[in-house]
Amino acid sequence: MNHFDYRNGVLHAEDAPIAEIAAAVGTPFYCYSTATLERHYRVFEAAMPKGSLIAYAVKANGSLAVIRTLARLGAGADIVSEGELKRVLAGGIPAAKVVFSGVGKRRSEMATALDAGIYQFNVESEPELDVLNEVAASKGMKAAIALRINPDVDAKTHAKISTGKAENKFGIGWNRAKAAYAYAAKLPALKIVGVDVHIGSQITDLAPFREAFLKVAQLVQDLRAAGHEISRVDLGGGLGVPYDSRTPPDPASYGAVVREAVGALDAQLIMEPGRLITANAGVLVAEVIYVKKGDEKEFIILDAGMNDLIRPAMYDAFHDIVPVRVRAGAQRRVYDVVGPVCESADLFARDRELPQLSAGDLVAILTAGAYGAVQGSSYNARPLAPEVLVKGRQFAVTRPRQSVEDTIALERWPDWLR
To answer: b/e string for 58-89 if b means 16 or more Cβ within 10 A?
Structure first.
């Protein structure tokens, strides 16, 4: 469920008309719904065992306003960079609720995270164990760690967002897991606290979760038998959201699998939902620049491009597209919906049936609150789109529109070109 709906033929974000926001902010822009963010977080939290740490995966949407909204609900954070750590701290999530994932943590990032007092590091390789041990020892500290284990489970999702197979770069191989824990136990500046797993993103079948979690449960028992104190189990994230007519499992069903697989371990559970919280809480609003008739197709050309929302180009992702104003009796036509970027991949929808549109009309690209603005770029020297947060009838620009002058000001002339 989300809080974007039509009233008198005009799409609203909660109680705010999208057209009114567009008139004030200009297009394209991202629009997020506070009520949807709050509902999604609460529904997920309620579905998990009591005492679980819900560590929001910041990579899905790094907006400070989104982070603060979730922080006020009690969320922790799953981060993958020093930049994300600084953002979550600025947004109000305490370091004691932060887990640091990622395959390529630098020494400086480890040092910053240790100084901040984060909850744990999810370590993804034996070389990382050595470096973290050195950094922690240099500070006279002990780093709490969970090893991310790759269970070699096919998440049955897009190849570019599958992370739990043996061929993926993430985690320590299943066959090396016990040896890696034995090695970590010998490093004096590390404290083993848990096991971590994350098999992918946009997963719409519970079977891969069940398979991975059952393997993790057995591993925890084996590690405890070997003398390791395992008090935390980080199950990652990955539960899918409805981009189209298909309905993924709901959080309650996912929670039942969690309880079935690991509920008896007597360990704190950590969950890392990202897309599930933010995807349907956001839309990308754009204006039709032209309606172009080609020899074989008719094109809707928007002022938003793949630099604003790259998911269709990168993942062949489906996003529903709707008009902001509904015209009674409008004919249906089949369009390719594209952007202005000079790339054939700059395409939001192919052969999509929509109400007839004209230049100047506004459209909303739905389910754009995850991996939308956060993956934006200035390709073709197109400034980053603004972000807007709605709460009831109120709306506020939380990230202003970048100007071309802003991007130019970031660069410096070398002496020989002055």
So the answer is: bbbbbbbbbbbbbbeeebbbbbbbbebbebbb
User: What is the spatial distance between Cα 262 and Cα 218, in angstroms, rounded to a whole number?
Assistant: 9
**208 preceded by a cis bond (ω within 30 of 0):** no
Q: What digits encode the pLDDT tens for the residues 110-162?
A: 999 999 999 999 999 999 999 999 999 999 999 999 999 998 886 555 454 44
Residue 417's contacts (CB-CB under 8 Å, 6 or more residues apart) are: none
Q: For the chain, give every domain's residue range.
A: 4-31+279-409, 102-271
CA 366 from centroid of its chain's CA atoms? 15
Which CATH number is associated with domain 102-271?
3.20.20.10
**Which of 392, 7, 371 shows the shortest CA–CA distance to 160?**
371
Residue 288, amino acid: V
Instruction: Please answer whether residues 350 and 336 qualify as being in contact, where contact means their C-beta atoms are separated by less than 8 angstroms.
Output: yes
Residues belonging to the active site: 342
CATH of 4-31+279-409, one of 3.40.50.720, 3.40.50.1820, 3.40.190.10, 2.40.37.10: 2.40.37.10
Please tell me the predicted confidence (pLDDT) of residue 159.
Answer: 53
Q: Is the pTM of this model over 0.85?
A: yes
* The pLDDT of residue 52 is above 70: yes
